[in-house]
Automatic annotation (TrEMBL):
The protein's name in its UniProt record: Uncharacterized protein
InterPro entries: Ankyrin_rpt, Ankyrin_rpt-contain_sf
Keywords: ANK repeat, Repeat
Top-level taxon of origin: Eukaryota
Lineage: Eukaryota, Metazoa, Chordata, Craniata, Vertebrata
PANTHER family found in the cross-reference section: ANKYRIN REPEAT AND PROTEIN KINASE DOMAIN-CONTAINING PROTEIN (PTHR24198), ANKYRIN REPEAT-CONTAINING PROTEIN-RELATED (PTHR24198:SF165)
Organism: Geospiza parvula
PROSITE patterns: ANK_REP_REGION, ANK_REPEAT
Length: 399
């Protein structure tokens, strides 16, 4: 069949199916026989040309053959799009097919083509962890500042995927012979670039617990106190996710333990919420306990949070470091009110057992004029009976 108006329509005939199968398999001799009288522009049911299929499967000889044939013999478009609006180069990058990508680039594939999500070839190569493709794109001058629809640079993608080697490539633009920070500055890779949520690559590394990557970003002058849309810093994120090594690293780089997000929460609030004793102690030591009674927008301290979440051990840690046992929140609830309402026996026990300094006020009333005992009696929980018994015994002892 000769090339013509019908040649670019999706094919369903067995001969066309066989040709696409041969491309996927990588059988060049078979293809050379069958393609003599067929059109290189034919499409499969996904609107992919033979070149798309060859690029995605990574058969170097096949790709070289088709690119040469397309450019010289038949004039097939090397930048043709499939149904996903991907060119053969974008497909090769997404699939991590280095040889395919290299041949396509050598033959003049458009490096500026993007996916519908505005991902560049570099974004896709980074997603695939294809360092060799990324290096090649960078050597051809691919811009590291380009963003996709999510406002992510390739560096954001690398941080999410934990491709440490790729971050090095992006930071040094493929050279890697001098200090990473110097290369970063020289090539202007956006180490503090923010995505749609205003997260920096360091936020993402902290979120995922990627210490090596976080170290690399900090060495390249990433801001340890950068804030996202919720005003969370990387330290908030690391504390919330329970990544002790990242918390240590950020504190060593002057991450602020007392930083507040849009809800007024400090990293200490989040470490307490997650019940992470090691991170809690680290944050307290870093701030010399000065942030221990910091309040969020609901005027809750870390002690309120520990009581609400039933972390009895953390209550003891907080109290031993100077937490105010009778601090009241915006509803005038003390930590004891919170523990009673949630039905956390261990938290109630820890608060009632505290014997050093100020003790829990059993008669404190909240904004509804309720004492902890009344709150416990009103809220039916699994441990209600035991909590009521504890409170009544304590009240008898303290009379």
């Amino acid at each position: 069949k000769k090339a013509g108006p019908e040649a670019t329509k999706p094919r369903k005939d067995p001969a066309a199916v066989d040709i696409f199968a041969a491309v996927a398999k990588g059988s060049l001799p078979e293809l050379e026989k069958t393609l003599k009288d067929n059109d290189l522009n034919m499409l499969n049911l996904s609107n992919e040309t033979l070149l798309h299929v060859a690029a995605a499967h990574g058969h170097l000889s096949i790709v070289a053959y088709f690119v040469v044939a397309a450019l010289i013999d038949r004039g097939t478009d090397i930048n043709v799009h499939n149904k996903k609006h991907y060119t053969p180069l974008l497909l090769a990058c997404e699939m991590g097919k280095a040889e395919s990508a290299e041949v396509l680039m050598e033959k003049g594939a458009n490096l500026g083509t993007r996916t519908p999500a505005a991902d560049t070839a570099l974004h896709l190569a980074v997603q695939a962890g294809a360092a060799s493709i990324a290096a090649l794109l960078l050597s051809k001058g691919m811009d590291t500042n380009l963003r996709n629809q999510a406002e992510e640079t390739p560096l954001h993608v690398a941080a999410l995927r934990n491709h440490g080697a790729l971050v090095g490539l992006l930071v040094s633009a493929g050279r890697g012979h001098t200090d990473v920070a110097q290369q970063l500055l020289h090539h202007k890779a956006p180490v503090n670039a923010q995505d749609k949520q205003a997260k920096s690559p360091l936020h993402l590394a902290a979120e995922q617990g990627h210490k090596t990557l976080a170290e690399m970003l900090l060495k390249a002058r990433a801001d340890p106190n950068a804030q996202d849309k919720e005003k969370k810093t990387p330290l908030h994120t690391a504390a919330l996710r329970g990544h002790l090594s990242i918390v240590e690293l950020l504190l060593a780089k002057k991450g602020r333990a007392g930083a507040k997000d849009m809800d007024g929460c400090t990293p200490l609030h989040y470490a307490t919420m997650k019940g992470n004793t090691d991170i809690l102690k680290l944050l307290l030591a870093s701030g010399k306990n000065k942030n221990i009674n910091d309040r969020n927008v609901w005027r809750k301290t870390a002690l309120h949070i520990a009581a609400e979440y039933g972390h009895g051990e953390l209550i003891n840690v907080l109290l031993s470091h100077g937490a105010a046992i009778n601090a009241s929140d915006s509803s005038r609830d003390t930590a004891l009110h919170c523990a009673c309402r949630a039905g956390h026996l261990s938290a109630v026990s820890a608060l009632l057992s505290w014997a050093r300094g100020e003790k829990a006020n059993l008669l404190a009333v909240n904004s509804l004029r309720k004492t902890p005992l009344q709150v416990a009696a009103f809220n039916k929980t699994e441990n209600q009976a035991q909590i009521l018994t504890l409170l009544r015994k304590k009240m008898l002892i303290t009379k």
